[in-house]
C-alpha cells in the first residue's frame, strides 16, 4: 500500500506514529502554504519522501491509497477526486455530510473496484467486536445510553472568538460531527436504522457545542450524548430484559466492558494487550487493500450510510 496522507492536523499527528508502528510509511503528505513548516517537520520525522502543497501533486505522486484527514466539509470533494483517479480511499469520520454524497462515492468505488472506507475506529476494536457477539444474551433490548463528552482543547479559544474548523458550522464542525458520530456508529452497528431521530443541542455562534440525540427503534430507545464544552465520565450502558452491558470508556477507544445478567452473574471482557485505538482500523484497512476485500468494505459502508443518514437529519434539525 502506497499511502498518501492529506492534512497535517491533530488527527494526522496522532495517526503517523500508529502507521509507523504498523510498518506503514506514507509515500506522500499534503499540506498548505500556511502549514508548510509543520508539513516539512512531519515529513522529516516520519521519513515521508514526498511533501506536496497541491492536491494534483499527490494524485500524480504514485500513491495508490489516499487517507483524507482534512476538515469535515472537504471530505467528499477530495475523496471523489481520488476515486475518480483510481485510488483507494480511507476518509476520516464523519465520512461526508450528506447521504447523497456517500452514495455517489460508493458508486464510484464499486465501478472501479476500489476500497472506500470511513476511518471509524470502533468497528475494528476487539472489545467492540466481542461486545457485538454478546448482545443476544441481553434478551429483547429496551434502552441504551452512550456518552462521549470531552472538553475541547480549542473551546477556550472559541469562547474568545477564535473559530477552529472543529467549531466552524461552515466546515461541518460541532459536537455531533466530531464526537457523537462515534456513538451513532455504535448504535448503527448494534441496533440498525432508527425509526425516528431527534436532536436537542446547545448552540453557540451557530454550532452545537454539546447535544443530546435520541434514536427511536420502536420497542427500544437509545440516547447519544456528546459535548465539547464540558467533561463527562463517558460511561455508557445497553439494557435488555435479561441483562445489561456496562461501558466505562468512550466507545471510540473501548478496551473493556462488563456483562451483568439479571440472575446476578457478572462477566468482564478486557483487551490484552492494550493498543492504540487507531492501530486496529489501519491494520484492517491495509488488509482490505492487500486482499481486495470489497465485501468487507461494503459491510462497513452500510454502517456508514446509517450513520450519515442520522447525522444529516440531526444537523437539519438544528440548522433548519
List the helices and strands and how they pair.
Blueprint: E1 3-6, H1 10-21, E2 28-30, H2 36-45, E3 50-52, H3 55-59, E4 65-68, H4 75-84, E5 88-92, H5 99-112, E6 116-119, H6 126-134, E7 141-149, H7 155-159, H8 175-191, E8 196-204, E9 207-216, E10 221-227, E11 236-240, E12 243-247, E13 256-261, E14 266-270, H9 279-291, H10 294-319
Parallel strand pairs: 1-2, 1-4, 2-3, 4-5, 5-6, 7-10
Antiparallel strand pairs: 7-11, 8-9, 9-10, 11-12, 12-13, 13-14
- What gap, in angstroms, lies between the N and C termini? 42 Å
- Proportion in helices: 25-40%
Q: Which strand order does the major sheet show?
A: 8-9-10-7-11-12-13-14
Query: Which percent band covers the strand fraction?
Result: 15-25%
The stretches of 5 or more residues where confidence is low (pLDDT under 50) are: none
Order of helices and strands: EHEHEHEHEHEHEHHEEEEEEEHH
Outline type:
globular
| Helix and strand composition category | alpha/beta
The mean pLDDT is: 96
User: Measured on Cα atoms, how large is the radius of gyration?
Assistant: 20 Å
Count of helix runs: 10
Largest sheet: 8 strands, mixed
Q: What is the number of beta strands?
A: 14
Describe the structure.
With 320 residues, the chain is α/β, with parallel strands linked by helices. Helix content is 38%, strand content 25%. The chain contains ten helices and 14 strands. It has helices at residues 10-21, 36-45, 55-59, 75-84, 99-112, 126-134, 155-159, 175-191, 279-291, 294-319; strands spanning 3-6, 28-30, 50-52, 65-68, 88-92, 116-119, 141-149, 196-204, 207-216, 221-227, 236-240, 243-247, 256-261, 266-270. An eight-stranded mixed sheet has the order 8-9-10-7-11-12-13-14, with helices on one face. Helix 1 (10-21) links the parallel strand 1 (3-6) and strand 2 (28-30). Helix 4 (75-84) runs parallel beside helix 5 (99-112), helix 5 (99-112) runs antiparallel to helix 10 and helix 8 packs across helix 10. The model has no long low-confidence stretch (mean pLDDT 96).
Amino acid at each position: 500500500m502506497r499511502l498518501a496522507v492529506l492534512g497535517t492536523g491533530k488527527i494526522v499527528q496522532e495517526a503517523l506514529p500508529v502507521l509507523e508502528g504498523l510498518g506503514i510509511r506514507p509515500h506522500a503528505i499534503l499540506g498548505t502554504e500556511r502549514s508548510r513548516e509543520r508539513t516539512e517537520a512531519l515529513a522529516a520525522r516520519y521519513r515521508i519522501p514526498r511533501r506536496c502543497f497541491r492536491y494534483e501533486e499527490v494524485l500524480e505522486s504514485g500513491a495508490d491509497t489516499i487517507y483524507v484527514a482534512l476538515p469535515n466539509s472537504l471530505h467528499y470533494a477530495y475523496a471523489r477526486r481520488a476515486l475518480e483517479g483510481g485510488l483507494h480511499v480511507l476518509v476520516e469520520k464523519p465520512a461526508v455530510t450528506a447521504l447523497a454524497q456517500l452514495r455517489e462515492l460508493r458508486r464510484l468505488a464499486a465501478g472501479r473496484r476500489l476500497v472506500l472506507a470511513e476511518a471509524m475506529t470502533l468497528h475494528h476494536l476487539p472489545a467492540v467486536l466481542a461486545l457485538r457477539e454478546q448482545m443476544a444474551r441481553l434478551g429483547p433490548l429496551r434502552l441504551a445510553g452512550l456518552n462521549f463528552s470531552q472538553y475541547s482543547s480549542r473551546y477556550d479559544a472559541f469562547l474568545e472568538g477564535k473559530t477552529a474548523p472543529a467549531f466552524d458550522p461552515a466546515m461541518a464542525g460541532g459536537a455531533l460531527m466530531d464526537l457523537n458520530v462515534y456513538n451513532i456508529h455504535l448504535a448503527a452497528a448494534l441496533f440498525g436504522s432508527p425509526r425516528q431521530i431527534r436532536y436537542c443541542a446547545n448552540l453557540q455562534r451557530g454550532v452545537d457545542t454539546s447535544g443530546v440525540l435520541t434514536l427511536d427503534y420502536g420497542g427500544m430507545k437509545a440516547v447519544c450524548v456528546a459535548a465539547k464544552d464540558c467533561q463527562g465520565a463517558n460511561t455508557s450502558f445497553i439494557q435488555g430484559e435479561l441483562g445489561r452491558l456496562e461501558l466505562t470508556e468512550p466507545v471510540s477507544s473501548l478496551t473493556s466492558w462488563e456483562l451483568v445478567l439479571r440472575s446476578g452473574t457478572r462477566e468482564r471482557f478486557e483487551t490484552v494487550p492494550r493498543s492504540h485505538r487507531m492501530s486496529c482500523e489501519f491494520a484492517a484497512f491495509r488488509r482490505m487493500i492487500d486482499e481486495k476485500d470489497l465485501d468487507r468494505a461494503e459491510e462497513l459502508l452500510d454502517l456508514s450510510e446509517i450513520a450519515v443518514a442520522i447525522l444529516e437529519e440531526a444537523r437539519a434539525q438544528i440548522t433548519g
